[in-house]
Amino acid sequence: MRSLFVSTERCRFGKSASLRMTSVAALLSGVAFTSSLAVAAEPVVSIDEPQSTSVTQSTTTTTVTTNSPSVAVAPLPPPPTVSATVVTPLPATQPLIAPTVISPLPAAPQAVVAPVQAAPPVGSQVASPIYFSGPVWIIPVQPGQTVIQPALPQQLPPPPVFVQPPQLYAPPPVARPIRPMPMVRRPLVSRPTPRGPVFGMGVRFTSYSIRSQEVFGEKPTLMGGGVQLRFRNQGHWGFELALDAARANIADGAFVRTSYPFTFAPMLYLFQNRPDRHFNIYATAGFGLMASDIALYQGSRQERNQQFWEVLGQAGGGMEFRFNRLALFADVRALGTLLDQGSEPGKFYDGVDSGPIAPSTIGYKLNIGAMLWF
Predict the structure, then answer these.
(1) pLDDT one-digit tens code per residue, 255-267
(2) Which of 127, 129, 197, 369 is most exposed, with the fewest beta carbons within 10 Å of its own?
(3) pLDDT on residue 350
(4) Domain termination site, one of 65, 96, 113
(5) How far apart are the first and last CA of the chain?
(6) For the chain, what is the domain count?
């Protein structure tokens, strides 16, 4: 029983010793932590005072008592009170730095310096100038004298106002007649007229029929061809030169006539001569000479050959269709002839109506041909 008690006590003592060691360590840690806080807070501690420590130990508890006066720790000062600052954000549209606008300095008005009123001196005085609504005249000071500046009036007299005297009679304004400006007629600039062809040459087929004569019971008709030249101006006029050759054979060689008419004929065109004018109508009238060779009983023993001259006149009209340069034409002309009886064959048949060529004949002539115009 005793041994059990002794072992129990030993166990308790061992436990108490370990508990005391833990308590001492915790107490030392707390004291160190409190000392550090006190040192940080600058405590007021008396160093000269003695400190005593008593340790009471029992079987189960160890008590450590420290006899030291209470340590007074000065309280920390309260933190300074800072007023809340509200920062207002700048608007996005305004710049961070306000632009500095330098306005031009206003022109300083001209200062009017008024003379200072001074007390009149006791000595000699000089007459002051007269002031009026205008510039101030300053009289220079004479040697040995002083100038008295009189007091300016409180209100200057108003400037004089010019009043225009009424007009008894105002003449009416003179009204000058407005002359129309003369119109300057500019000379009309005539554009050059487009030039049409002026010269043409061509060939033609001709038929000459004599209606006032009969030979062996037939009216002779001469068939042939010829050449012609035509000239034109830019207007309506022109003329023609032509030479033809025509032949007629009646009764198988009993009467053979070959004629060579040469004619000159002025021409009048209906339309003017223009490059774009393709169709035209013309009239013609002229005169000429015609040489004729008559053969009677050709190829027999009774063959006779005679030559005659005739004067002819013609008048007629026709039409012309022209392309770029090539032209086609056709016309009909009345033809009259007179026999020349001054030559030897003409004298032989003077007064004879049944001769190879009548003293006068009437007929018509047809021309159809083509031309080149230049």
Answers:
(1) 999 999 999 999 9
(2) 127
(3) 78
(4) 65
(5) 175
(6) 2
Q: Is 48 left (phi over 0), alpha (psi -120 to 50) or beta?
A: alpha
What's the distance, CA 214 to chain centroid? 85
State residue 70's pLDDT score. Answer: 45
Reported as a single tens digit per residue, the pLDDT across 29-81 is 776 676 665 555 444 444 444 444 444 444 344 444 444 444 444 455 555 55
7 inside domain: yes
CA 241 to centroid of chain Cα atoms: 60
Neighbours of 203 (CB within 10 A): 12
DSSP string covering 356-367: SS-SEEEEEEEE
Distance of CA 235 to the CA centre of its chain: 44
Is 235 within the bounds of a domain?
yes
Report pTM.
0.50
For the beta carbon of residue 178, count every other beta carbon within 10 angstroms.
6
- Structure-token pair, residue 92: 């996005």
What does the alpha-carbon distance between residue 305 and residue 309 come to, in Å, rounded to a whole number? 14
For residue 6, being part of any structural domain is answered with: yes
61 shares its domain with 208: no
Q: Residue 276 is encoded by which pair of tokens?
A: 């774009």
Q: How far apart are CA 369 and CA 22, in angstroms?
A: 159
SS3 349: coil
Can you give the CATH number for the domain in which 240 is found? 2.40.160.20
